[in-house]
Amino acid sequence: MGGIIEEDRKKVLKEILKQLHEGVPPEQVKKRFRHFLEGISSLEIAKVEQELVSEGLSREKLQRLCDVHSAIFKEQLEKQKVEAAPLSPINILLEEHKMLQQIAEKLGMLAERVQKAQTPDAAAEELTRLRHVADELLDAEKHYLREENALFPVLEKHGISEPPVIMWMEHNRLREKKKRLKALIENAVNMDFADFKRRLGELAKAIGGALNSHIYKENNILFPATQRVISEQEWISIREDFDEIGYCCFTPEHLTAKPAKELKKPEGEEKLMEEKGTLKFETGTLTKEEIEAILNTLPVDITFVDGDDAVKFFNKAEKRIFIRTKAILGRKVQLCHPQKSVHIVNRILEAFKKGEKDVAEFWVQKGDSLIHIRYFAVKGKDGKYLGTMEVTQDITDLKKIEGEKRLLDWEG
Fold this sequence. Notes:
Helix 5 packs across helix 10 (193-229). The protein is α+β, with helices and mostly antiparallel strands. It has 3 domains: 6-77, no CATH class; 89-255, nmb1532 protein domain like (Four Helix Bundle (Hemerythrin (Met), subunit A), Up-down Bundle), CATH 1.20.120; 272-399, PAS domain (Beta-Lactamase). It has helices spanning 6-21, 26-32, 34-37, 42-54, 59-77, 89-116, 124-138, 141-157, 162-186, 193-229, 232-245, 267-274, 288-297, 342-354, and strands spanning 278-281, 284-287, 301-306, 311-314, 359-366, 369-379, 385-394. The protein contains 14 helices and 7 strands. The strands form 2 sheets. A 5-stranded antiparallel sheet has the order 4-3-7-6-5, with helices on one face. A two-stranded antiparallel ribbon has the order 1-2.
């Protein structure tokens, strides 16, 4: 099969995946195409899965069938071991995967012990440890945020967009399961113990299975494909974004140190970033430095999406509410949202472009904070649509304001 040209290889691989989607038993497919499977790469799988979605295969169906793909390509994929420098983003993610699997194993073990207990008091020690395990699983949020906001956008720039979307869908499913676990454990004392044990066993099994399956696909398909397309300079920027987003309570400390090698952007890029000038507006003049400082001082998060739906700018407010990294610049805004809400994003943008609406607003609870999110249609003097501005603000304290506090009341 070594002489097959790339386009022919793609057709064969597509035929393999289509047969699996149609329900042909994996062993039968594996036997028929065993010679071809010996030369398959993770990057080829990622690209063909992407083409299938563009041809009409739903992402939900692709996500459900990913485990079947992993099984049939298992032998070949496991030959393509990921080798990464100790302080590289990929190695950080790999090491965190090991820790997450250990936490999931601990969850399973504790859940089994609880099954043997006859009363809540007999399982008191296990319940205390389960609370800690649930907190560790929830603290993995920054692991997912680093992938979604620093790694996935760069992959998309290299034409690999569907595998990250599928992984993000799995992140969201894991998030929901972990929240349910936390709520279940916190409510254990108010529940029938037999019912609690049953639900705990089901959740522990579901979380362990979903986590191991997800990690396998990232380690053996997504990460090897990533290493084939992302440049050394891009890895430097990704690592910077990783540091800015932060790490988990279980991330090995030696991995979070700054890379030993001095990381510098290309000289031309640095010079471009340092360029200064004065812009004259209708209401005054400002330097680039002043404009940037003003935008970053605003007590709100601002993100601007241009007329082609690409993220063009965001400010760096002192206390950002939602994570933004430079990797999202140039990224289609639709890819910055979970798949389940993309249709709403498109409806808002369409209404703005048609001039049917100028504002859309929402508010959500984030922990103890109330977050106000507003989208504004940005238009030029001639009324032409230029883009959309998202403004996000924590209004928790603002809601508590009563009476008056005048300028003369200020105390230094």
